[in-house]
Write a structure and sequence with these properties.
By secondary structure, this protein is an all-alpha fold. It is built from 11 helices and no strands.
Length: 219
């Protein structure tokens, strides 16, 4: 699968996940399980973007621009859930990208790793979407990107930690836990090709679909 195909899958699964809050008729377990595919794919795109970008500064600026653009639609959308005082997932990805950059650019890892840990924890303090977990997932997906077995193990361990941190029983929510591991299948099917460039559609889709869902809910 190319990045183009994976981005379409990510957008579709994110939309399905978010319409669950529009009407109880959509709030089905199967839709929730499918929705778990989206965020790890967004994280994967970020790590690939970092590896292949020719201008890291422009990459940061683009992420920050769309983080700001998305914040108001995100907050309105989050009112459907009940918790709106948080920063959208673009800010989560910016923190993750900062971890990757610091780790990659600092030769002395005994300095860069503690800084990355602080940045990961800052995700919880400033209340970005997915909190510390989202930032940590971005960082570990970059670190393990060249080793599928290691990525599978660390990815699964991180999700287990995430469930434990928020007092979710893996045994009682085993199907839901396994749904979080499905994105690995899509990531491993990545063929290294970019495919059609839908960069700006991909960025604009995030705020636009949230605004659309909120407007429909008002109707």
């Amino acid at each position: 699968m190319s990045i183009f195909v994976l981005k379409i899958i990510a957008c579709v699964t994110m939309f399905l996940d978010h319409i669950r809050y529009l009407n109880p008729i959509f709030n089905k377990p199967i839709i929730s399980y499918v929705g778990r595919i989206a965020f790890p794919l967004f994280v994967f795109f970020l790590t690939e973007g970092y590896v292949h970008t020719r201008n890291l500064k422009k990459y940061y600026k683009r992420l920050l621009l769309f983080a700001v653009i998305s914040q108001i639609p995100f907050m309105y959308f989050r009112t459907l859930v009940g918790e709106w005082k948080m920063l959208n997932v673009m800010f989560t990805l910016i923190l993750g990208l900062t971890c990757i950059t610091i780790y990659d650019k600092f030769e002395k890892k005994y300095l860069s790793i503690p800084i990355c840990i602080l940045i990961i924890y800052s995700g919880e303090i400033i209340n970005v979407d997915y909190g510390w977990f989202g930032v940590a997932l971005t960082f570990i997906m970059y670190l393990c990107r060249n080793n599928k077995m290691l990525l599978s193990a660390v990815y699964t361990a991180l999700f287990y930690t995430y469930f434990t941190y928020y007092n979710f029983s893996v045994a009682k929510n085993f199907t839901y836990f396994m749904a979080h591991l499905i994105p690995l299948v899509f990531i491993f099917l990545y063929n290294g090709k970019k495919g059609k460039d839908i960069r700006y559609f991909y960025y604009f889709f995030y705020p636009v679909h949230m605004a659309l869902i909120y407007m429909i809910s008002c109707i």
